[in-house]
Every structure is written in C-alpha cells, then in structure tokens.
Amino acid sequence: MDQQPEITVDMLLDVYSELSRKMTGQRIRALMDHLRKHELSLNQFFILNIIERGGACLSSHLAGHLKLKAASITYLVDSLEKRGLVARMENPSDLRSHFISLTDEGHAVSSFPFEHAFASDLFKKLSQDDLEVMYVMMRIMNRKLDAESNDTPNP
Fold first, then answer.
1. 3-state class of 77 per DSSP?
2. For 133-139, which contacts have Cβ atoms below 8 Å and span 24 or more sequence positions?
3. Distance CA 79, CA 71 (A)
4. Residue 45 and residue 109: Cα distance in Å, rounded?
5. For position 22, what pLDDT does the model report?
6. What is the pTM of this model?
7. Residue 59 in contact with residue 77, Cβ under 8 Å?
8. Whether 73 contacts 79, CB under 8 Å
C-alpha cells in the first residue's frame, strides 16, 4: 500500500500562498470589471464604500479617509451626484456643509459582493465530497483564528 508523504507546514504555506495569489487576482479583476461597467474611478468607488459602511457623512470625513484635498472630494462627489449615486443634505448644525448619502442606485453600485461572487463560482465547481472537506477545514481554521484572537491581549 502506498504511503502518502507527510504534509509539512511549508507544503501548506506553498499551497496557501498560491491560492491566496489566485484569489486576490480574481477579486482585483472582478473589481476592475465592476468599475468599468459603472464608469467609476477607484476614488469614486471608495467614497461610495465609505458611505455604505458608515452612513451619511461630511466631505471632510471622506477627505480624511482618502487623504485627498477638499477640492478633490468636492469634484468626486459632484460627479457622483450628477450620476444619481449620492445626494447632499444640509447639515442642520452647520449650514455651510452638507451630509453626503447614498441613493438607492449608489447603494446597489457600492454593495457588489466581490468575495461571494468569486467564491460561489469556485465552490459550485466542487464535488459534494470536496465541499464537505472544505467546510470542515474552513471551520477548523475559523476556530483557530478565533482562539488566537481571544488569546491575544488587547493593547
């Protein structure tokens, strides 16, 4: 009977690195396709995502996150507003500034699930046996990561 070679940490790291590289490439391609489809720059997409995650905000908040000047943020928000992806609302505590929020269309464009689309396509190609093995392995990895994060003291 043939004996399987002992699996080493280096072997796992090699496979993990290759898988990670391929998956990252797929996510980048999906993002670039999404940006082209919606005619968005990366900064415009980041603005939509910041608002998606945190809710309506001031342009100064966007400028801080993106490390851009106020004039650049104004230009980007103007272009998104013209396309109906964001809306400005008066700030009741400072009438010189406006909150920027997503419209329904902006929400649809910003919430594209890159991770799930790619992973779903990949998982659909696996046999039931492979799916079961992947499921068990992912649960093991998740538990190990959770245990490590619980063991690490908070600063």
1. helix
2. none
3. 12
4. 8
5. 87
6. 0.74
7. yes
8. no
